[in-house]
Specification:
heterodimer, A: 352 residues, mainly alpha, 13 helices, globular, B: alpha/beta, Rossmann fold, six-stranded mixed sheet, 19 helices, 22 strands, 34% helix
């Protein structure tokens, strides 16, 4: 293939964009930290000490670092589950529900086929998880494609249904003899392998690979081009012969499937058991991250890492600085405000 | 630049622009432009698409900031940082795309625009002022009508009233006649003449020579961001203006006379097709239409009488509720847009910005959109941009258009977007072309190129459906014409059998039997 005349230029502008992006997000983070420092000061804590603890506990040791990766893993997948549909203009607020359904389906597999060897059982559970999440997203997808209900509403409402479905099975059928709100521990062959003797499991790799795949598909393939067209101007895309309705349904389902995979990874990797209320907003966190990162794969990785650092560092802050864990949510909220408000003093994103 | 002496020799210009320059990334839109605007004058700013007309006036209106240069009001320097400043200096502008709020009434829209609006609006006062001014300038409009229910022509009246009521003394109109039907154009020019005699200064941005020669007192021609000439009316004639606009003589359009071959299989056949009425759209009723290969069928009609629906129906955007659609002998009534396009049906829609292009994509990416399968390699994993680029270059050189292949579509002007769509749609030997308002927004040179592309396609055996409000265009290049009114075909004839007067009668529906059925 003849090198495109603008290839060098594109590379240059890409690196310029990356530098600009780092500068932008870096300054936003600084601003959020400053605001949070004021809160700490007001409550009589030493902000500098708190930040030192926050960083040293997460980046200061291999174990701390691995815990950040553990916290980040599901966020990668749930953020992708939001970012993909957002590229064709769909707002998937239902990741939390899709995650529950994925976990539910995968758990059924783990409990029913516990005799199978890991190399059959794990892919089977992953597939089941994706089917569960995908089917849960199919409902909003079909309703949206036929112009009946906006997907934002349906995905959001289905979020409160899915945990009830999970509870129904856990309390009704799957609970272990000793407990009411969780299943028996999964057999070892139903557990995702961990890496380097830490709690980091295989789903981190899966998440990174899927994000890379997402980047490649959007950038180079025919489907990426068609999806960008739908996202850019749905009417023109339709008139140009792109089957937008098929895309709406299938992309939302794929998003749901990724969320379902995140659910499977949570129960199979992190917990090894299905708790009735295992997720405390991992799906919503994914929505937040995808928004902050503008749906950009690399941005998702970086943002997930930052958010994971704050949340896992927050646990320690509770012990060393005697601040309630909820305070960490204030820091997250500040970050969100700063990013969404895009203050004028910060370097701006140039129009792409 | 030739120096001119104003007709009223002693008057000082109301507004003077001196040395205005403005650069956009990659484009010098305005390059050291000087311009004087006098009271009681209609000043036409003429130039082809992308000559910098709109940019210059948007600088005067405070919408853009000039890189260098100065603006003077009555000889005193004026700094315009926003439309608000411009309005304070009594300068008002009507944009190409109107800025009215559809859900509001005319009076509410106009009240909203007043700088000194009372905390408690007195809409009655506003309505009274609207009525006073509108009867004076025959801009009749119902102040309580909702904007979404107005026609384009009426919306334009509302825009002009908005400026008059806010005391603007200089009105800038950006291509005001682009969206109007012929009789509305006459009415608008009449309004402008009345305003002129009351001392208003009017700037008319346009690329239509006829209007300029009809009403302008002073004509400034821009070419590639520079003033290529400034004339008063009696110095100007068509040839002179054209040479200033293009710097060379324009080639004419040869339409060879060639009877359509009706013996062949029709390229398109509609048999008794009807569509469902959808919101404000017009339902098509019982349409029978055949387009033969090598034939251009022109569709005349007042806009909103089913033209858009007819084009959408052929493309497959709208479903037939009755009847059947046959393309080259194959029934395609229920086929998807993609498969209809793959049969060689091409589509130039009425609004390229909304209906055909994706703003945040480059021209080349937009090129690829209609044929993503054709350009996909490795089963879709890769796109052959080289092939896209070759098709793009071939098609644009055939048409004589030149566009930057890697520019973002949203950075193109309206005319260039239309060129992009025409380049794309004619790239792959089309067999049936559906073109709505093909030449809207194009300058004289591109208009000829676009029409020539249709004639070329006809010569190669394509059937063409050309929807237009420009009767002259239809009479020039159609082999056959139909008139749409209220979603029905009310007349069908050969151009040489009739004249524009009779077509106008069919368009407006003066016969009684049709009025009864409608």
């Amino acid at each position: 293939m003849r090198p495109q005349p603008d290839l060098a230029e594109r590379a240059k502008s890409a690196s310029a964009r990356a530098v600009g992006g780092l500068l932008r997000y870096g300054s936003m983070a600084v601003m959020a930290f400053l605001l949070f420092g004021v809160i700490l000061l007001v409550s009589g804590k030493n902000p500098i000490g708190a930040y030192r603890d926050l960083f040293s506990s997460t980046l200061g040791s291999a174990r701390g670092f691995s815990e950040v990766l553990v916290a980040m893993t599901p966020m990668l997948l749930t953020a992708l589950a939001v970012a993909l549909p957002s590229r064709i203009g769909l707002i998937n607020v239902g990741v939390e529900g899709q995650l529950y359904m994925g976990a539910c389906f995968a758990t059924w597999g783990a409990l029913t086929f516990s005799d199978l060897p890991a190399w059959v059982l794990l892919p089977g559970m992953a597939l089941l998880g994706m089917i569960g999440g995908g089917l849960w997203a199919l409902i909003p997808g079909v309703l949206r494609a036929h112009g009946l209900v906006n997907e934002t509403i349906t995905t959001l409402l289905l979020n409160s249904v899915a945990p009830m479905v999970v509870s129904f099975f856990v309390f009704g059928y799957w609970h272990s003899p000793m407990d009411t709100n969780k299943t028996a521990n999964f057999v070892p062959s139903a557990r995702l392998p961990t890496l380097f003797d830490t709690r980091v499991d295989l789903s981190l790799i899966i998440g990174l690979v899927l994000l890379g795949l997402f980047w490649f598909v959007m950038r180079s393939t025919r489907w990426g081009l068609e999806m960008r067209a739908i996202g850019g101007n749905p009417q023109a895309a339709l008139r140009n012969g792109i089957p937008t309705r098929v895309y709406v349904i299938s992309v939302l389902c794929i998003g749901g499937a990724v969320a379902g995979l995140a659910g499977m990874a949570q129960v199979s990797g992190f917990y090894g058991v299905l708790l009735a209320n295992f997720s405390r907003g991992i799906g919503f966190m994914g929505f937040l991250i995808s928004w902050l990162a503008g749906g950009n794969p690399l941005g998702i990785v970086l943002t997930s890492f930052a958010v994971a650092m704050i949340t896992s560092g927050g646990n320690l802050l509770q012990l060393t600085r005697d601040v309630p864990y909820a305070v960490i949510n204030i820091l997250l909220a500040f970050t969100l405000f700063v990013v969404l408000a895009r203050p004028r003093v910060l370097p701006r994103r140039k129009a792409a | 630049m030739p120096s001119v002496s104003p007709p009223q020799a002693a008057t000082q210009p109301m507004i003077s622009l001196r040395g205005i320059s403005k650069t956009f990334p990659g484009v010098i839109a305005n390059d050291e432009i000087d311009l004087d605007i006098h009271r009681s004058e209609i000043h036409a700013i003429l130039g082809e698409n992308g000559a910098g007309k709109s940019t210059l006036m948007k600088i005067l209106y405070g919408f853009y900031r000039a890189d260098s240069g100065q603006i003077f009001l009555d000889g005193r320097p004026l700094s315009v940082h926003s439309p608000n400043d411009a309005l304070a200096a009594k300068v008002g502008m009507v944009f190409q795309d109107f800025t009215l709020i559809p859900a509001f009434s005319v009076a509410e829209n106009i009240a909203l625009f007043q700088r000194d609006l009372d905390p408690v609006m007195r809409l009655k006062d506003v309505s009274r002022r609207i009525q006073a001014i509108s009867s004076r300038y025959s801009l009749t409009i119902d102040p309580s009508a909702r904007v979404s229910e107005l026609s384009i022509g009426e919306q334009q009246k509302a825009e002009i009233l908005k400026l008059l009521i806010s005391d603007a003394r200089l009105l800038i109109l950006d291509e005001p006649t682009r969206v109007l039907a012929p009789h509305e154009i006459e009415a608008l020019l009449g309004v402008l003449r009345n305003l002129r005699s009351d001392g208003y200064a009017i700037v008319l941005i346009t690329h239509k020579l006829r209007e300029v020669l009809e009403c302008a007192d002073r004509i400034t021609v821009l070419r590639r961001g520079r003033v290529s000439g400034s004339l008063i009316r009696r110095e100007a004639d068509e040839a002179r203006l054209l040479s200033l606009m293009f710097g060379k003589e324009l080639p004419g359009l040869d339409v060879e006379d060639r009877p359509a071959v009706e013996a062949n299989l029709p390229a398109l056949e509609l048999r008794g097709v009807s569509t469902a009425a959808d919101g404000t759209q017009t339902a098509l009723k019982d349409i029978d239409l055949r387009i033969y290969p090598g034939e251009i069928v022109g569709v005349a009609g007042v806009s909103g009488n089913g033209q858009r629906e007819l084009a959408d129906l052929i493309l497959g955007m709208k479903a037939c509720v009755a009847g059947s659609k046959i393309v080259f002998g194959e029934e395609v009534t229920r086929e998807s847009i993609r498969s209809i396009r793959e049969r060689g049906v091409c589509f130039v829609p009425e609004n390229p910005l909304v209906m055909a292009s994706v703003p945040f994509m480059s021209v080349l990416e937009n090129m690829a959109l209609t044929r993503t399968r054709r350009y996909a390699r490795l089963g879709g994993l890769r796109i052959d941009w080289r092939a896209v680029s070759e098709d793009f270059l071939r098609s644009s050189s055939t048409l004589g258009f030149s566009l930057p292949a890697h520019a973002m579509a949203r950075s193109l002007s309206g005319g260039n977007l239309q060129r992009m769509v025409i380049i794309r749609e004619t790239a792959q030997a089309p067999r049936l072309i559906v073109a709505s308002y093909l030449t809207r927004g194009l300058d004289a040179q591109s208009t000829i190129a676009a029409r020539r592309a249709l004639l070329q396609a006809r010569r190669n055996g394509a059937g063409v459906l050309l929807i237009s409000e420009d009767l002259e265009e239809l009479f020039t290049i159609s082999d056959r014409m139909i008139v749409l009114r209220g979603g029905r075909i009310v007349a069908s004839f050969r151009p040489d059998e009739t004249d524009s007067f009779r077509v106008g009668l069919f368009m407006t529906g003066t016969e009684i039997q049709h009025a009864a059925t409608a």
